[in-house]
Amino acid sequence: MKISRSLPKVMVIVIVSTVISTLLVNLIEKRDHLTTKENLASHLEEFKTNNQNKATVVLQRKIGDQHVLLYTQKGKNDKIGIAYYIKTDLFPFYELVRIQEAKHQLLGSSFLNNGQFIVYGNVKDSGAEYFQFRNNIDFKKVQLDEQPYFIHVEPYGGQLSVPLVTFYSNAGEMLASAPAK
Length: 181
Known about the structure:
With 181 residues, this protein is of the alpha+beta class. Helix content is 23%, strand content 43%. A hairpin with a 6-residue loop joins strand 4 (79-87) and strand 5 (94-101).
């Protein structure tokens, strides 16, 4: 009889210890990628800064369940990129899930996991006035704001991937293209 009474206690102890060990392993494994909501910008700057290039977060935006941060790196090779943070399920932390640098130094595009894509860049240094992409059969032209940096979200429009995005000056001169993904 003693064995049958102690079996449920042992099972509970095993389950609780398994859950605790899983949580601790996940926390230790991902500690470099975890931060609080208030420290998203400083976390990314610290994560991306190296000896030659200093990273600076220039724009932050919440899109769906993600926090998207636009950053620049000044140094030998100036770069612009975008980082994605999502809220973790188990802890009150945000996890850095993806960093993507633009192919062009000042303008780029990336995908979201909700049927939309992001177009981002530095308007001030690039001189871009608008960008254009294929939306099904037609081309869609999107005018850019007067802000120095931008993050713009667009739906795929029935396409399977991020379309080719082309940036233009006010005079209609093509400045850069962000390749389809």
